[in-house]
Sequence to fold (350 residues):
Amino acid sequence: MKFQQLGSVGLFVSRLAFGTATFGGARHPLYALLGGVTQEEADRMIGVALDAGINLFDNADVYAEGEGETMLGKALGTRRKDVVIATKITNRTGPGPNQVGQSRVHLTNAIDDCLRRLGTDYIDLLQLHTFDPLTRFEDCMRTLDDAVSQGKVRYIGCSNFFAWQIMKAQAAATMLGREPFVSVEAYYSVLARDIERELVPFIQDQKLALLTWAPFAGGLLTGKFTRDRRPDDGSRRLRFAFPPVDLPRAYDVIDVLGTVSARHDATVAQVALAWQLHQPFVTSVVFGARRLQQLEDNLKSVDLVLSEKDLGEIEAVSRLAPEYPRWQQDLPLGRLPGQGRNWTSAIKDD
Fold:
């Protein structure tokens, strides 16, 4: 396993992180569809992940209505001190009016509930799961800082935020002299490179860690689907089409990944993971598994080295179309589009 520094703090995490959204939920319609992994299966997979060198495990308080955290804590057992546990809070955890969001009441209760389910005294990385438009960042950052001061949390981060929202939170923390975010968890796959437009440059500028989720785009990049073998009516992808994907474009990308995987005697899933590991701004890629074999196969992506030819072919088929203001800022300073003249000479000529 390879490791990378978590942003600008002195903590090192494995380049692959094991996500546990597939744990539990056998009686829950959504989470049974996502995985429904039993405790016995979870124990085996966590053991294999630990033996492979993975030290970052990702969860959330809403996964299988909290059962995912409970199962993770049990599976880690006495090896808890050897790992970095990341979990997320914000989403609704009950029917009450204050069982959702980022108020001091909900965040405080949610942290205590996570600690109880995980069976631990501290959470290594606590992340806000999504943006709450109702709570001031000043209140939120104070509450998170209190949890750090109390020893309940070691580092804080966020997930599914716009860059400007993260900047507001960081500014509030700086103004108050409180703990800032050290990480961002965001959806990223070779089929959906949206974060490269604004979030990635922001993360690099602010020296934050980037943890990416859903690298297989909801199952489309697992190797099960091709242009000629598409999801059928019984497929999880059709019953739960998340994250959203541009399917016609997706199959163009899958064609290229298939070519690259054949070149390396690898799987499409391994190439999808390896491609992310080749991106310099990615700290760790969070992936899940429903079966032990999936986990074992995906672990091999760490050792898969893609050539310049491989990366060039993938880039050509998956790159983002330029959008404003990127295409404007990419112009040489003082030049007009499509012209060799600068602004001054253009004005004089007119």
